[in-house]
């Protein structure tokens, strides 16, 4: 069903890497969400008022917030699809996150209001009419929501959209919430006790929780959450596989919206490499990374001396010492400057974020171990933290 709808309404649907096609997918999912959720909300409101059920009305309001979320998602995809301009040189893709944040605040507000109404129903319960039509409506709407869950999941995975995938998760949670309302109606019918207010309160609390969860999911990328480990590994694989590359470091990846990444990296090459040949290496890496991952990468070349025995011996000594401290520690930008009284070893070390030693303690430990091997060495060390997007 979902694939059929995609073929009917998404032109050039297989070209998912095209920003215009991705925007079409997003707007299509938004329109489906608006229509389906509005229909479900309308049906449940009518049934909830007819049977005087606060729980069903709360569930209807939940569907209405989903419809409002779809509206904001639709607008967000439209705005995020605008091309870069003078004021926003990296594009407008973060509008997708901002739209999600607005939706989350709306959801929380409605959840609070519904909770107040449900509490009043608990304090002063009203007569609840339960009929077969109530069960049929709740069961039918649950099946529709379940289909929407798979619909959103399919599109979210196709275009790698966190907002659409969040809608899939929200739909599945809605199925559970509706089932809770259905269960309360069944219990009320057979037990002769009105559980309607309690069920409405539970649904309202769930709505508030969903809104708070969405706040976290949308704020994280706005604050600069690290890209996926898979993306980092793929970029590293491409760079290390390139001809003429001896190593890499200082990979930094920034995101400006879903699938909108900019990155920079230092690539180590033989110091005797000709300038034009080195430039070709960097160009090839940038093109390959862009073609395979879609990331706009800038490569900085670092020359490495490979045929000087004294430098190589000092480099191996430092590598051995760092491995003794923690095998995850790496080094780069290694230089050796010989003087009359002493020899300077200048290098950076990259350490995992969870290393127990402070930068000062680590530096002192490395220097102490180097001096234990040769007092003629003086060390100038820079410590970098590896937080996943910085390698």
Polypeptide structure, described:
The protein has helices spanning 2-9, 19-50, 54-80, 95-123, 132-159, 162-191, 196-223, 229-241, 275-293, 309-325, 359-373, and strands spanning 247-255, 261-270, 296-304, 330-338, 343-352, 377-386. It is α/β, with parallel strands linked by helices. The chain has a three-stranded mixed β-sheet, with helices on one face. A three-stranded mixed β-sheet has the order 4-5-6, covered by helices on one side. A hairpin with a 4-residue loop joins strand 4 (330-338) and strand 5. The longest helix is centred in the first third of the chain and has 32 residues, at 19-50. The radius of gyration is 29 Å and the shape is elongated. The two termini are 44 Å apart. 33% of the residues are buried.
Question: Main traits of this protein?
Answer:
alpha/beta; three-stranded mixed β-sheet; 6 strands
Summarize the structure.
This protein has 391 residues and is of the alpha/beta class.
What is the strand and helix layout of this fold?
Layout: H1 2-9, H2 19-50, H3 54-80, H4 95-123, H5 132-159, H6 162-191, H7 196-223, H8 229-241, E1 247-255, E2 261-270, H9 275-293, E3 296-304, H10 309-325, E4 330-338, E5 343-352, H11 359-373, E6 377-386
Parallel strand pairs: 2-3, 5-6
Antiparallel strand pairs: 1-2, 4-5
Helix pairs in contact: 2-3, 2-5, 3-4, 3-6, 3-7, 4-7, 5-6, 6-7, 8-9
């Amino acid at each position: 069903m979902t694939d059929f709808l995609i073929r009917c309404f998404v032109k050039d649907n297989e070209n998912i890497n095209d920003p215009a096609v991705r925007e079409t997918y997003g707007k299509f999912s938004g329109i489906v969400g608006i229509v389906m959720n509005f229909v479900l909300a309308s049906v449940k409101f009518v049934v909830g008022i007819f049977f005087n059920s606060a729980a069903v009305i709360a569930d209807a309001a939940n569907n209405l917030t989903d419809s409002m979320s779809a509206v904001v998602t639709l607008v967000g995809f439209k705005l995020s699809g605008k091309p870069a301009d003078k004021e926003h040189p990296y594009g407008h893709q973060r509008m997708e996150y901002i739209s999600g944040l607005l939706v989350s605040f709306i959801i929380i507000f409605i959840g609070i209001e519904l909770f107040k109404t449900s509490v009043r129903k608990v304090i002063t319960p009203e007569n609840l009419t339960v009929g077969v039509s109530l069960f049929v409506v709740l069961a039918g709407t649950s099946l529709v929501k379940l289909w929407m869950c798979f619909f959103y999941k399919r599109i979210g995975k196709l275009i790698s959209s966190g907002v659409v995938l969040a809608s899939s998760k929200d739909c599945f949670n809605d199925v559970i919430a509706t089932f809770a309302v259905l269960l309360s109606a069944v219990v009320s019918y057979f037990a002769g006790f009105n559980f309607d207010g309690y069920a409405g309160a539970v649904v309202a609390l769930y709505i508030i929780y969903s809104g708070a969860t969405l706040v976290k999911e949308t704020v994280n990328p706005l604050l600069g959450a690290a890209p996926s480990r898979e993306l980092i590994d793929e970029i590293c694989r491409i760079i290390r596989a390139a001809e003429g590359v001896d190593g890499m470091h200082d990979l930094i990846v920034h995101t400006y919206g879903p699938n909108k990444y900019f990155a920079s990296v230092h690539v180590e090459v033989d110091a005797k490499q000709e300038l034009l040949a080195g430039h070709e290496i960097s160009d090839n890496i940038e093109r390959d990374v862009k073609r395979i991952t879609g990331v706009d990468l800038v490569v900085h070349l670092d020359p490495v001396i490979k045929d000087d025995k004294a430098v190589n011996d000092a480099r191996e000594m430092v590598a051995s010492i760092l491995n003794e401290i923690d095998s995850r520690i790496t080094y780069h930008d290694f230089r050796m400057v010989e003087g009359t009284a002493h020899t300077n070893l200048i290098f950076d070390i990259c350490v995992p974020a969870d290393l127990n030693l402070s930068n000062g303690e680590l530096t002192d430990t490395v220097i102490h171990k180097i001096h234990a091997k040769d007092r003629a060495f003086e060390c100038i060390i820079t410590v970098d933290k590896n937080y996943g997007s910085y390698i």
